[in-house]
Design a protein that fits this description.
single chain; alpha/beta; Rossmann fold; five-stranded parallel beta sheet; 8 helices; binds thymidine-5'-diphosphate
Length: 203
């Protein structure tokens, strides 16, 4: 039997407004009486916490493949311990980043995209994947106020965006132009989610 829950994922380069829009969407859905779980990757669990701390250090880096495997290991725990149980309870799960981040960010370092996909094959496909699309220039502007992590450097972000756009072409993600007033972006997202919920309600 298919999971009764609904799984929605937000992707985008840093500063694309994911956290704001996730909050707005979650509030709207809760207001309608739905049970919503907001979650994120890297997770708040042990491996995710290790990755966040590691990303803020400027010291010796692991090999890029090991970084990819760390994100995948964190995701495995996240899927088994957080996402799947919530979906089984019929919740709407909204994740800030998922395996598409590994394809885009680790793929942009030159790692074979098929290998990354293979390492993440365990990860269930979401019902909806939204790409909040902005230009890397705008991203850097928006994250300028805070310290950059090792995953946030400009040419690199251009490549990350390119890979994201390829995933839109493949039909894995739906692109929403996030370089617009907040309410317009919000309305587009709500339209996509309403379409999904209606299709799930159909007998
Ligand atoms: P995060 O703390 O979510 O940053 P932000 O709030 O700006 O989205 O993520 C930290 C960094 O980790 C982010 O720059 C993207 C990177 N990342 C990967 O490189 N691969 C992955 O699989 C994931 C989930 C994140």
């Amino acid at each position: 039997m298919a999971d009764p829950g609904v799984f929605i994922v937000f992707e985008g380069i840093d500063g694309s407004g994911k956290s704001t829009h996730i909050k707005l969407l979650a509030e709207e859905l809760r207001g309608r009486g739905l049970r919503v779980l907001e979650t994120s990757e890297p997770s708040r669990d042990r491996i995710g916490t290790f990755i966040r701390e590691y990303a803020e250090r400027n010291g010796d880096r692991f090999t890029l493949e090991t970084e990819t495997l760390l994100f995948a290991a964190d995701r495995y725990e996240h899927v088994k311990r957080v996402i799947n149980p919530a979906l089984e309870r019929g919740m709407v799960v909204i994740s800030d980043r998922y395996f598409y981040s590994s394809i885009a960010y680790q793929g942009a370092t030159g790692i074979d995209l098929n290998w990354i996909r293979e390492m993440n094959r365990f990860a269930p496909r979401p019902d909806l994947g939204v790409l909040l699309d902005i230009l890397p220039e705008d991203s850097l502007q928006r994250v300028n106020d805070r310290a950059k992590t090792v995953f946030e450097v400009s040419d690199y972000l251009r490549k990350v965006r390119e890979i994201y756009l390829c995933m839109v072409e493949r039909g894995e993600l739906v692109r929403v132009d996030a370089d617009r007033p907040r309410d317009e972006v919000r309305a587009d997202i709500q339209g996509l989610v309403d379409g999904l919920l209606e299709s799930r309600e159909a007998p």
